[in-house]
Amino acid sequence: MSTEATALYDLPGPRTRRRHRFYGVLSAVVLLALVGWILHLLFDTDQFTYTKWMPFEYKGIQELLLRGLGNTLKAFAIAGALSVALGGLLAAGRLSDHRPVRWSATAVVEFFRAMPVLVMIFFVFVALKVQPLPALVTGLTLYNGSVLAEVFRSGVGSVERGQREAAFALGMRKSQVMAYVLVPQAVRAMLPAIISQLVVALKDTSLGYLITYEEFLHAGKLIASNLDYDLPFIPVVMVISPIYIGMCMLLSWFAGRVSRRERRSPKTDAVDVAAAEPGTLLPGGDPPTAPRP
Questions:
Q1: Alpha-carbon span 232 to 47, nearest angstrom
Q2: What is the dihedral of CA 269, 272, 276, 282, to 10 degrees?
Q3: Quick one: which of 53, 125, 146, 185 could link to 113 by a disulfide (CB 3.0–4.6 Å)?
Q4: Is 44 exposed, middle or buried (0-12, 13-18, 19+ CB in 10 A)?
């Protein structure tokens, strides 16, 4: 076994490897014991009885869940697109050279970032008497758009100052500097935060059930409160939760793939270069030779 050091740390010795192996086995045992204890509680409270899981066999229940899932994705798609657009608009206002525009954008961002999402949704739904879907989308857009505005602003500000100065030295206008120099470079830094905020927006669509919007959680609530199936609350949670987690993981996976693709530098790509041949160093002549003494 080689014992030479790496760039980051020394290779662990036999005692360290045994200790790490012991820690791994101990962690696995603790996790298995925790899972076993949870399963024991579920079986002890009769959560796996046929009566509680019977609703998922009916076509009407399946259609209800699929319709709720479709409504959730529809609300998320609209709110996500509008949040990104609003965030870009507010970020442009905060980066403006005009003080009234910059102060107005800052006031809007700070106000809606501090306002709870549920309060905004209820205000639009109750006070403005808007339908459930527009009320939900409006609340999600105002909050997430304000957060994304700060993400965009900080991402643009993270680009090296020399990039901005070089672009202005070439005679580019501020809009051109933003569009062609700063924003393309800032996307790489902003992408993880943007996706994280979109995941928050996806989860917050579940607030729609409080204003009777028939989204995924609302459909699960209708099933869980059914007395005919002995209130199958835990089975509904065990069905709905993995789907929510799967959608968030899918969104994170997509973000990671896009991020890796953005980070791929064209300088590292393989380029075919013709082999150098004698007599081709200078056009139209032989290679230069040193004068003879």
A1: 8
A2: -80
A3: 146
A4: exposed
